[in-house]
Design goal:
Blueprint (H helix, E strand, L loop, with lengths): L3 E9 L2 E3 L4 E3 L1 E6 L2 E7 L8 E6 L3 E5 L1 E6 L11 H7 L2 H17 L2 E6 L8 H10 L7 E4 L4 E2 L20 E2 L4 H11 L5 E4 L1 E2 L8 E2 L3 H13 L4 E5 L2 H10 L3 E4 L5 H9 L3 E3 L2 H10 L11 H16 L2 E2 L14 H9 L4 H15 L17 E5 L12 E6 L2 E4 L1
Parallel strand pairs: 1-6, 2-7, 8-9, 9-10, 11-12, 13-16, 16-17, 17-18, 18-19
Antiparallel strand pairs: 1-4, 2-3, 4-5, 7-20, 14-15, 20-21, 21-22
Helix pairs in contact: 4-5, 5-6, 8-9
The chain binds zinc ion.
The site of zinc ion (ZN) has 4 residues, from loops.
Length: about 400
């Protein structure tokens, strides 16, 4: 009689990326939700019977971690942001989000950090729970909930002042930030997301929204509950204040310069440049990539990305998915290569670097004994061609196979 341990798999392919390095001819052995061995195939000696998974011409990798998604949003060229926020019910948006979650997982992203429900309340908290309860399929999630904005600094904007318009995030100012942060924590936020600036300058330019003091309070209250705070920031001053206040990650950073890059490095901030969002929004406005000249906003992005790279800033992978379709998460990794990052660094960004940025480096982001069995198989070699990550053949999350 053969005895099979509960869901033991020996996963083999041509090569294995362990979260830091690529190894030829390595395999990984998993038992249930844990990895038990990783190394050269002939050196792995299973202690029980197991099922062999083998894909030729392929690469095994830790499940990718999407660092910046909005499961409650979908592409603005289908329905613009204002309409999604103002006209669609939270229920409708949540039903749609269940499809987004499924598409994200099947694209090889076994974990996702959601940066705000954009007007859908705490639907992200419910989505995360439904996934954890095995009601629907999707990645493991870290969620922000409503996110926080300074009064007057967020959209939808441009409506008659006599109307009360609901916002895409929760306003808070001054002493009220204590209560707002605590309330968001109480309702299920895994971290506090703040918009440190907004395009409310006199010329529609990005200018800081919160004062440094307000951001410090947000940080203090979040930290005392064991959570971090992260900041949307494009302007230099917005980034500077957020970093000095203790932000763990900076999102977007369009106007990052050498001084800000140095400050990020000094404060061990992880930078999420969200290259895809800028390219997609510019495309929605009519830009044809490869045909028309590159507009200044994209040149800016390329410049800030290069500056951060040269300064040795920790760069995470997160594309601001939702602006474009969930399941197309690979786009950000392709653009990171296109903008000058080496393929091995891009793979690290999507696995071990993101895991560290989210304090999960002892659970995910690596293929190591004891780590969670979140594993994917890519058809091809992403070090030779990053587009191969669009060909995900096999997905395992917590020891369960979701794509075969
Ligand atoms: Zn975002």
């Amino acid at each position: 009689m053969q005895v099979f341990s509960q869901n033991a798999y020996l996963i083999t392919a041509d090569r294995l990326f362990d979260g830091e390095q690529m190894h030829q001819g390595w395999s990984v052995l998993v038992e249930g939700s844990k990895i038990v061995a990783v190394g050269p195939t002939q050196q792995i000696v299973p202690s029980c019977n197991y099922i062999t998974i083998h894909y030729p011409n392929s690469t095994i990798s830790p499940g990718f971690i999407e660092g910046h998604t909005h499961m409650l949003l979908y592409p603005y060229n289908i329905t613009d942001w204002d309409t999604q926020v103002l006209k669609e019910t939270d229920a409708y948006r949540t039903i749609r989000a269940t499809i987004h979650a499924k598409n994200t997982l099947l694209a090889g992203f076994t974990t996702a950090r959601d940066l705000g429900s954009e007007g859908a309340g705490y639907s992200d908290v419910a989505l995360k729970k439904a996934i954890n309860d095995n009601m629907i399929i999707g990645p493991s999630m870290l969620v922000a909930g409503r996110a926080i904005v300074a009064t007057g600094s967020y959209g939808p904007k441009g409506y008659d002042d006599d109307q009360t318009i609901m916002l895409g995030a929760e306003p808070a100012d001054g002493n009220n930030v204590y209560k707002t942060v605590r309330d968001q924590i109480g309702k299920g936020a895994d971290f506090i997301k703040v918009y440190a600036d907004y395009r409310w300058g006199l010329k529609g330019d990005d200018q800081p929204s919160f004062t440094l003091e307000e951001l410090k309070i947000i940080n203090e209250v979040a930290k005392s509950s064991g959570r971090g705070f992260v900041a949307h920031a494009k302007s230099k001053e917005g980034m500077r204040r957020a970093i000095l206040a203790g932000a763990e990650t900076i999102e977007h950073g369009d106007f990052l310069d050498a001084d800000i890059a140095a400050l990020m490095k000094q404060h061990h901030v992880t930078f999420f440049p969200t290259l895809s969002a800028v390219e997609k929004i510019t495309e929605y406005k009519g830009w044809q990539k490869g045909i028309q000249t590159t507009p200044s906003n994209i040149l800016n992005k390329k410049r800030s990305f290069k500056l951060a790279l040269d300064a040795g800033v920790q760069i995470g992978m997160g594309g601001d998915v939702g602006v474009y379709a969930h399941g197309q998460n690979a786009l950000e990794m392709e653009l990171m290569v296109e903008y000058g990052m080496s393929p091995i660094e891009v793979l690290k960004a999507a696995t071990s670097v993101n895991a560290k940025a989210f304090h999960l480096e002892n659970e995910i982001g690596y293929l190591k004994p004891g780590w969670t069995s979140d594993i994917i198989i890519i058809n091809g070699n992403p070090l030779m061609d990053m587009h191969t990550i669009r060909n995900i053949q096999w997905v395992m999350k917590h020891g369960v196979i979701y794509k075969n």
